[in-house]
Design brief:
By secondary structure, the chain is mainly alpha-helical. The chain has seven helices and no strands.
Length: 190
């Protein structure tokens, strides 16, 4: 009925099932795919991206904090009254150096964050695509199960949720509904 053949479905499923001789510890292809995507993104990084990432990684570590504690302590100790004072209190030169460091460090962090944001956006698009494909496949599977039920002459369950799940999800309608609900929620707050 409706072009459905049980033997074709059985062959299709068995051709995709892992064989019994496949080791359980083998890394799934999806994990390898994710690692490959990450490596490809790293390959696209420019020299500036690598430098910014290295500086950001270093600045976000405890050794960086301890280095600054030691540096500031030594600077202040050398510039105490009675010592060799090249930058006496209120340590104007130290303030200028730290300010310049903060400006450059903030720039490097922003560069790294922009790259991370771009990668995150790409992952979100990929997630959306995979979710839409999975939803489409589940909808198709529900339809196939319904065809099997009809083929076997089983009664319909008249389940409203199953009937709803058989309908495809329309992304634009779903997005419009989400926007409408968010707008209503923001209006109710004011």
């Amino acid at each position: 009925m409706n072009g459905f053949r049980v033997d074709e479905a059985r062959n299709s499923v068995s051709s995709r099932a892992p064989s019994s001789d496949t080791p359980v510890s083998e890394t799934p292809s999806t994990v390898r795919d994710v690692v490959e995507l990450e490596q490809r993104e790293k390959g696209r990084m420019t020299l500036g991206d690598h430098i910014a990432q290295a500086i950001t990684n270093g600045a976000g570590s405890m050794p960086y904090v301890w280095l600054h504690v030691a540096w500031f302590t030594a600077w202040i100790a050398v510039n105490l009254p009675g010592m060799w004072q090249f930058d006496p209190y209120p340590f104007t030169f130290l303030t200028m150096i730290v300010s310049l460091e903060a400006i450059f460090l903030a720039t490097f962090v922003l560069i790294s964050e922009n790259r991370q944001s771009t990668m995150s956006d790409q992952r979100a698009k990929l997630d959306l695509q995979v979710n839409l494909l999975a939803e489409s496949e589940v909808t198709k599977l529900i339809g196939m199960l319904n065809e099997i039920r009809i083929h076997l002459g089983l009664p319909s369950s008249d389940d409203a949720e199953v009937a709803r799940m058989e309908q495809p999800t329309y992304v634009h309608e779903l997005a419009s509904e989400i926007e409408k609900l968010e707008e209503e929620a923001s209006q109710s707050k004011t």
